Structure formats: structure tokens, C-alpha cells
């Protein structure tokens, strides 16, 4: 492999302005911890709707340093479990509302990208496809559920998929609206828009703990100082676990991605370049691919790992195995991909819950503190929507409609410490091996 060292994302850095650490005692009307898409969307909408509000954004590193800058930029509809499972769990009415909310989230992100002049936004369609028997069964269940709910999600035959992306899948579903974009560019644009609206930023300041304040609002403790706020938003995703936040179990999974050098123009068009298609396998954790603006291809999925205290050599060996399999899978899709060089390989962390439903709600026992996290790998659209939802809630603008299933303060608990963690790791590993054998 040529190019930057392993671990370097395809996307460039968000390039924020230098940010001071939290030192001494700092105050704010609203403190947002986490400078990813959810936290920055929350700060942006707060500043836009309440211009006089004193808002501080604090991050352990800086904007887009976490999952928001290390994703693969697939913007598509999905909120919580697959639609057929959502019907069984929540009923048809709520399942329909969940899907429609995810569609609105996609269009809202596209509108936001246009407003902030985000580069590398490629509207198109997202095809959920299958090659394995398990994937076909999953697609059939989802197609039936969409049809019974009266949702417009067309079915594609094998010939229809090949006509669009030149890859041999057996069937698929077409999701619109969808797009492919640069997630770090969106995050950086949000950060700059927040600065332009007067939001203060602090970097290199990991949150150590949060406490109910003595007089008003919470107290946030950092290595070199404290911040007292009237209200706080903890957009910290799976960091909730080591902060011992009372949000149930929101645990991290490490996932993997790679990008290639540019293809020839005919090969790029054969893989759907003109129409901007992305393809996601219907099996959970299964691999997917999208095209890049420089005519390269990006792929992700196929493996996941529960982060542990592995030493650096073992952790790197685990990543190398995941990248090796993902590269082989990508090269198998089309003859033009057989010799293209891989230029970038990296990993990132997503946050999962036991029931695949995010957590967006006030923190129990902590007045005026909200938490956002647990999108399960579908956070590009949902994180922005969740940030806007929490901003509206803090300003007293919440609507009177029924809440979504993810408007909750806790996820189910899982035994992720001691023997339970080993069992969860074994489950993830076995699931990944099944995916790699069948895709």
C-alpha cells in the first residue's frame, strides 16, 4: 500500500482555529461537550435561535477528531433497527414515523450542507443489496414491511443493480433521498459557523466527571479546570461508559474503512459514478462501498471489534486482518478493482446500544443536563437531527407530538464488564466471521 500511514482517514482534518484548554473556572449559559456532528449541530442551532446565549463547546481533542471525522460519509435513511424489526417492536405507526423522521434528517443535512457551502456533497441513491441467502431473507422482510407501511422504497432485481453499479448482487432496495459526502468537511463547516455566531471553543480538554451544581446548573470537571453552566449537553457517544453516565449501556465498536487511488473514467462510470450510487449489504456489519470525488472508491464494514486493553501490537494486528479482508472483498466486486492501489486505511468508533435505538434525553439525577449518543453507525443524518432536537428542547421549543423511541434517557443495560465483556466480544467476533464467510 502506498500513501499515508495506516490509521490516516481519507478525509483531511477539520482545520479548526487553535483552541485553548479549559483552565481555572469557566462559566457559560450552555456547555456542549463533544465537537462532533451532534454537539456542533446543537451549538449551531442554539446560537442561531438565541443569538445572545453564551455557548461553550469543549472537546477532548477538537472538531471532527472522533467518529464524525472518521466515517465514510454515507448519508442515508435509517433510524434504529431495520424496518421489519421496528414494526414488530414498536408497531406499524411508530415504525413509519421512524423512517419518515430519518428521511427528514437526510434532507435537513443536505439543506445544511448547501447553507454552509460544504464541498464534496454528491446527492444520489443508496442501494441496500444482498448476495447471500441471509441477506436476501433480510431484504425480503424489509421490502414487505416497507410495502405494508406504504413507504416508497423500490425493489431492484439483479439486472437492475448491475445496470446501475456493475456489481453482481442478487436483489436490492433503493433508498432516496441519499448522498455521499465528506463528513469531516461538514463537521468543520459547522464548527466555523458556530465560531462566526460567537460560540467559544475549548480543545484538548477531556471531561472527567459531571456533578449537579450547588446553586444552578451542572459542574463539569476537566483536567485543568471546571466549567459551570446553566445547561449542558453531553454529546459524548460511547464515552458515556467510562464517565459512568446513567444512560444504560452505550458501548463502542471499532469499525474499519479504506480508500483507493482513482479509477479510470470508464470504470468509475461502470460503478455508478455519474448517478452517485452507494451500495450497502443488507446483513448487519456487512461491507459497503461508495465512490469518491477523485474517482476513487471507499469501502467499509465487514469486521468490528469491541475495544479492549490490547497492547498496540495486538491491536494493530487485529486492524491489519480487518483491512486485509476488506481489501479482498472490494477487489472481488469488479475487474477494474483488481489492481487499483489502496491509499488509505483507518478505523473509527461507533456507539451501539443493545436494542439498536439511540439515546437522546435528559440525564437522570442531573438537572439541566442532556445526553446524545448510540446511533449504531447511522449517525451522519441522525446526529445532526438529534443536535437540533436538543437545542429546541433547551430553548423550550419542543413540539407536542409523540416522542420517537430514541427520545429517551436510558438504553437497556448489558453486562459489559468482567465475564460479560468477554461474552459480548465473542458475539461480535462470531458475527463478523459469519459475515466474512457469506459476503
What report would you give on this structure?
- This protein has 439 residues and is an alpha/beta fold.
- Among the domains are: 18-73 and 182-250 and 353-408, FAD/NAD(P)-binding domain (3-Layer(bba) Sandwich), CATH 3.50.50.60; 251-268 and 284-346 and 423-439, no CATH class.
- It is built from ten helices and 17 strands.
- The chain has helices spanning 37-49, 83-90, 92-116, 133-148, 158-165, 183-196, 265-270, 312-331, 379-394, 419-438; strands at residues 24-33, 55-58, 74-75, 122-130, 155-157, 171-180, 200-202, 209-212, 218-222, 225-234, 251-260, 278-281, 288-291, 297-305, 342-352, 359-362, 369-373.
- The strands form two sheets. Strands 3, 4, 5, 6, 11, 12, 13, 14 and 15 form a nine-stranded mixed β-sheet that branches. Strands 1, 2, 7, 8, 9, 10, 16 and 17 form an eight-stranded mixed β-sheet that branches.
- Strand 12 (278-281) and strand 13 (288-291) form a beta hairpin.
- The two termini are 24 Å apart.
- The mean pLDDT is 90.
- This is FAD-binding oxidoreductase.
- Residues 29-392 form the FAD dependent oxidoreductase domain.
- Pfam families: DAO.
- InterPro entries: FAD-dep_OxRdtase (IPR006076), FAD/NAD-bd_sf (IPR036188).
Amino acid at each position: 500500500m502506498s500513501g499515508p500511514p495506516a490509521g490516516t482517514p481519507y478525509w483531511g482534518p477539520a482545520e479548526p482555529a487553535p483552541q485553548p484548554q479549559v483552565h481555572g473556572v469557566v462559566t457559560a449559559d450552555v456547555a456542549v461537550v463533544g465537537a462532533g456532528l451532534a454537539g456542533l449541530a446543537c451549538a449551531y442551532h442554539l446560537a442561531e435561535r438565541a443569538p445572545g446565549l453564551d455557548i461553550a463547546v469543549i472537546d477532548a481533542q477538537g472538531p471532527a477528531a472522533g467518529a464524525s471525522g472518521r466515517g465514510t460519509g454515507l448519508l442515508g435513511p435509517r433510524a434504529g433497527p431495520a424496518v421489519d424489526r421496528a414494526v414488530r417492536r414498536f408497531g406499524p405507526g411508530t415504525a413509519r414515523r421512524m423512517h419518515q423522521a430519518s428521511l427528514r434528517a437526510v434532507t435537513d443535512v443536505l439543506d445544511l450542507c448547501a447553507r454552509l457551502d460544504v464541498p464534496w456533497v454528491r446527492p444520489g441513491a443508496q442501494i441496500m443489496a444482498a448476495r447471500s441467502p441471509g441477506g436476501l431473507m433480510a431484504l425480503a422482510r424489509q421490502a414487505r414491511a416497507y410495502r405494508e407501511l406504504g413507504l416508497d422504497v423500490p425493489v431492484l432485481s439483479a439486472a437492475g443493480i448491475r445496470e446501475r453499479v456493475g456489481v453482481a448482487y442478487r436483489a436490492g432496495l433503493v433508498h432516496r433521498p441519499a448522498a455521499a459526502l465528506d463528513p469531516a468537511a461538514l463537521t468543520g463547516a459547522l464548527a466555523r459557523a458556530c465560531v462566526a455566531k460567537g460560540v467559544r471553543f475549548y480543545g484538548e480538554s477531556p471531561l472527567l466527571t459531571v456533578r449537579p451544581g450547588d446553586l444552578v446548573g451542572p459542574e463539569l470537571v476537566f483536567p485543568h479546570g471546571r466549567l459551570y453552566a446553566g445547561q449542558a449537553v453531553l454529546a459524548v457517544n460511547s464515552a458515556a461508559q467510562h464517565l459512568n453516565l446513567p444512560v444504560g449501556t452505550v458501548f463502542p465498536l471499532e469499525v474499519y474503512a479504506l480508500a483507493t487511488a482513482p479509477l479510470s473514467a470508464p470504470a468509475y462510470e461502470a460503478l455508478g459514478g455519474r448517478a452517485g450510487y452507494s451500495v450497502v449489504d443488507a446483513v448487519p456489519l456487512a461491507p459497503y462501498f461508495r465512490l469518491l470525488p477523485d474517482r476513487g472508491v471507499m469501502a467499509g464494514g465487514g469486521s468490528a471489534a469491541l475495544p479492549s486493553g490490547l497492547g498496540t501490537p495486538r491491536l494493530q494486528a487485529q486492524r491489519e486482518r480487518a483491512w486485509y479482508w476488506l481489501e479482498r472483498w472490494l477487489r472481488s466486486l469488479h475487474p477494474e478493482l483488481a489492481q487499483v492501489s489502496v491509499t488509505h486505511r483507518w478505523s473509527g468508533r461507533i456507539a451501539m446500544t443493545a436494542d439498536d435505538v439511540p439515546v437522546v434525553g435528559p440525564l437522570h439525577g442531573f438537572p439541566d443536563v442532556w445526553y446524545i449518543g448510540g446511533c449504531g453507525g447511522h449517525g451522519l443524518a441522525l446526529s445532526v437531527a438529534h443536535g437540533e432536537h436538543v437545542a429546541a428542547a433547551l430553548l423550550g421549543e419542543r413540539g407536542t407530538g409523540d416522542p420517537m423511541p430514541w427520545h429517551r434517557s436510558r438504553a437497556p443495560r448489558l453486562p459489559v464488564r468482567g465475564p460479560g465483556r468477554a461474552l459480548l466480544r465473542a458475539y461480535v467476533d462470531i458475527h463478523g466471521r459469519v459475515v466474512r464467510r457469506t459476503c
